[in-house]
Amino acid sequence: WLVQADVRVIDDDSIPLYQLFAESKVQVGVNSTAIFEGLNFGLKTILLNLPGIEYMEYLVKEHVAQVVTSPADLVEEIRNGTTPQIQTDRFFKRDSLNNIRQAVDKLLSTGTSVR
Q1: What is residue 38's predicted lDDT score, i.e. its pLDDT?
Q2: What number of other Cβ atoms are within 10 A of residue 91's Cβ?
Q3: Which one of 54, 95, 109, 110 is separated from 46 by 20 to 30 angstroms, measured CA to CA?
Q4: pTM for the whole thing?
């Protein structure tokens, strides 16, 4: 059924990650900062119960990601699970370039060294 499904497996860096997020509806993972970035694109987020998932506990507690333990659970969650409405400012502060500039200006004006 997977061969017939509308699923693409990407195993290289030939397509930019944000392009993939923009074209996708669901993301499946275990532990990555990219999972947070996918949330910013409104992706339904499913986490596999594998080593490393403990770092994503916050997303599960906040009900923005679902955990599955088997392939059957994954299929069920993709087909019938709901996509939570996520306020992206919970994870990302707006105007990142300006925020970086302000942080650098603050460091430079206080004489704080960055290592």
Answers
A1: 93
A2: 15
A3: 95
A4: 0.74
